Model the fold of this input.
Amino acid sequence: MTSVDVAPKASATSGVQHFDVLVVGAGISGVGAAWHLTHQSPETRFVVLESKETFGGTWVTHRYPGVRSDSDLYTFGYRFKPWRGAPIATSAEILSYMGEVIEENDLARHIRYGHKITNAAWSSDKKVWTVDAVKTATGEALTFTCGFLWMCQGYYHHDEGYTPEWPGMADFKGPIIHPQTWPEDLDYAGKKVVVIGSGATAATLVPALAEKAGHVTMLQRSPTYFATGRNANELADTLRDLEVPEEWTHEIVRRRILKDQGMFAHMAREYPDAVKDEILKNVAAVLPEGYDMKHFTPSYRPWQQRLAFVPDADLFKGICAGKASVVTDQIERFTDKGILLKSGEVLEADIIITATGFRLSVMGEIPFQVDGHPVNFGDTLTYRGMMFTGVPNLVWVFGYFRASWTLRVDLMGDFVARLLDHMKAKGVKKVMVDPGEAAATMARGPWIDPDNFNPGYLMRDMDKMPKCGDSAEWRHTQDYWAERSDIPAIDLDAPIFRYDDQPATARAVEAAE
Done:
């Protein structure tokens, strides 16, 4: 690996620091971006700005009991860094893994913590982004310029989660807590706890709380699909027993998991009823005999929302032991002692936890301007869910719902490194995506087809997201199994890529030649 001086270039403007690339965020995406730049574009001067005081992103934000991955670490981990633990990992294990990536690749010198970005403005004359930031510890204002922005800040607000407003919330005498802002001193030992929600967060919280609480009730408006199994990988165990090198084990197991996931996604799409029956049969097998399966039978088809994995059946073991229960109903109102349901039942509670999801954040809610004009990303058209019409020299990492987020981090790392090298070879400093004449007649739709995937946090704020077009290259397809071939094969000289101020007609002539 070639070492490069990461000090910012001198600027004619006093106090302004310039880099070739500015990466926003030091979570799983930002750390991955830093690795790709270091290894694939070693001459690139870059900086990573992180608003928190440490790396980790979502794994620092979420501190509730039992917090863990809901994806296996063979695919949620990076392709370049073997995973050696159990497939489903705790936040502490994931942070340790990320820390090793940073240390082993000397990435810490590129990362600046406690830097909150307040504005980003592109100048076509100067062909640079000007990024304003504030040091959160001191309030000091800083200015950076860069040739390229790599947005790795995620897709939700980290400061607060989504909690609906229910009647009577002020009447409840106990604490109402969202998992995203979990208080470290919360004493729930022996208490009656109601967890509102049934997604991966609730499925993690309920068994963790049940170890100390008097009783935990998971209150859901509608059920979620759960899969369960051992938190182990037999193939990985076998390969390690044979003393196969960890790098080979990681790659072999990763490929096996991805093949199995691809087959499952295909089956869920083509044979949803059969897949649904198999999922419910597996859940029923770890519940008490005669348990009412309405609590685990969703109204939607498998994979229309994210499938939550329950390692070692811990959620269901809590139900079998009588430490946890599930109620499927709607909330009429809160009372001083708990929750009154539409059915008339009252759930008494000492503590209520609203595991009700995220608040969508587009580009970190940073104000953007291009040549003095504000950018509304909801008005843009997306190129493969990573670039946006009218916005030069910017890529946003938005991962997969049906596969691990990090799979796209690696794919896009390759793409950005290749794009930067291509621009350097062409001697250009600006790139935009543009459908050209096709834009006039291209049908536009929402970022994600609601019939294909419809989690609540996206449905609530879909209008804020960029729009998709009528072909795969103008959509975020969420199809890793296609993108793993399609993205590396992108022709960077195709007419849709507009370099510097090259008009669309000139690009069309070049393409014809």
Q: What stands out?
A: The first strand starts at residue 16 and ends at 24. The longest helix spans residues 246-270. The chain has a mean pLDDT of 93. The radius of gyration is 24 Å.
